[in-house]
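A quick aside before the break. I want you to see a complete sequence-to-structure record at least once, exactly as it would be stored in a machine-readable document. Don't worry about memorizing anything.
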Amino acid sequence: QEQLVESGGGLVQPGGSLRLTCVASGMIFSMHAMDWYRQAPGKQREWVATISRRNRTNYLESVEGRFTISRDNAKNTVYLQMSRLKPEDTAVYYCHCTTWGQGTQVTVSS
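That is the input. The structure line, written in tokens, reads:
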């Protein structure tokens, strides 16, 4: 059974950093592109970043230069390093591949 489990969310002040982690199981991880999405209160879920099987990356324009997606195939893990966080980055962040994780809450507030 394919499963994704996110962690690393929390409360951070504006300008701070967090690293989200997503561990995959039940799939051949290295064969899949991996995505991060987010959903803010009252808004639709939006795509944030993708890393391909060959480590090519793409980002939502508003996070470009502040967020970095990476993967470790030996650990079946994808990361989202978030820096210079803004209040508008507050959302539940989801890992996605062939299925969805349960999400991890990120709150940016002073």
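Two observations worth writing down. The mean pLDDT is 96. Strands lie at 3-7, 10-12, 18-25, 34-39, 46-51, 57-59, 67-72, 77-82, 91-96, 104-108. We'll return to this after the break.
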